[in-house]
From TrEMBL:
Protein's UniProt name: FAS1 domain-containing protein
Chain's role: May be a cell surface adhesion protein.
Compositionally biased tracts (Low complexity): 231-240
Database matches in Pfam families: Fasciclin
Organism: Sphenostylis stenocarpa
UniProt keyword Glycoprotein, yes or no: yes
Ranges for domain FAS1: 71-214
Keyword annotations: Cell membrane, Glycoprotein, GPI-anchor, Lipoprotein, Membrane, Proteoglycan, Signal, Transmembrane, Transmembrane helix
Amino acid sequence: MNPSINSTHLPSLPHQGPLFHSATHTSLTDSQKMVMMKKHPLFSLSLLLMVLCYTTTISAQTPAPSPTSAPTDIIRILKKAGGFTTLIRLLTTTQVSTQINAQLLNSNNGLTLFAPNDNAFQSLKPGFLNSLNDQQKNELIQFHVLPTFVSISNFDTLSNPVRTQAGDDPDRLALNITSSGNQVNLTTGVVNTTVGGSVYSDHQLAIYQVDKVLLPRDFFVPKPPPPAPAPGKAKASSAKKSTDGPASAADNDSAAISLKLKNGMWVPLAFAAALLSL
Ligand SMILES: *[C@@H]1O[C@H](CO)[C@@H](O)[C@H](O)[C@H]1NC(C)=O
Ligand SMILES: *[C@@H]1O[C@H](CO)[C@@H](O)[C@H](O)[C@H]1NC(C)=O
Ligand SMILES: *[C@@H]1O[C@H](CO)[C@@H](O)[C@H](O)[C@H]1NC(C)=O
Ligand SMILES: *[C@@H]1O[C@H](CO)[C@@H](O)[C@H](O)[C@H]1NC(C)=O
């Protein structure tokens, strides 16, 4: 800050190099004196230097953000806003809130959450939420989250369908956003709604209230048949048993493998021979 103080300090401490701010100089020299009396001054000193470098780097990288240094907690924000009881419950039970808080700590892209209020959840078909399994509840909540921070004036920069954290299957998980001025329309193919207002924005996390729950089309179109159903697999393995010799079946047997680990090559060979002789 004060250039005259800086210029008097720096020449008097030439051995410390240009890495350190003037603020760290006094503490460094004091600690240095203490360290010199210890048995392993080099180790202690380098440890001290590492810590100082680390804290300096961290404070240099953090872009002077929130006045409160506590990490962002999406639940706390929604509780403070009020009217999001059901959303808070779903965010918590699906653990998406934990994931969101972690993402906010670890990513620079930020996040956008469309937050249906309690009225929105109440206007769903009765029993709808209870009809969803855990995986579907998770998908429903992730469908309300965009993996980037989008300010209210930047929705027109997105291209449709917009990718949500539920995935990007354009047939099942499409979310289209059209905007004009401050009016932002959302459609999923099942639900149309409009952004009702900004609940929270800190240049990293944006929360917008919506009057309807964004239901993905995925919940309403029939699923393709699952790829490998269990009965087919059982059939295939019994077919394999009938064509393959008993020795190869024994090779893949977990008992044979654990015997092999214990006693080397001979046990499974003996085991196979025993089977062949049956
Ligand atoms: C949003 O939807 C309303 C009708 O629901 C329509 O009148 C308006 O033009 C739409 N705005 C945009 C930006 O798509
Ligand atoms: C979303 O937008 C894409 C591209 O404009 C379009 O092909 C698709 O039909 C739209 N889907 C919905 C649900 O509106
Ligand atoms: C949503 O809006 C589109 C036109 O913007 C309309 O064709 C469609 O029927 C609406 N869907 C619902 C579920 O209201
Ligand atoms: C055991 O079976 C798996 C498939 O189920 C196969 O990939 C593997 O090669 C088999 N191992 C042996 C030793 O036959």
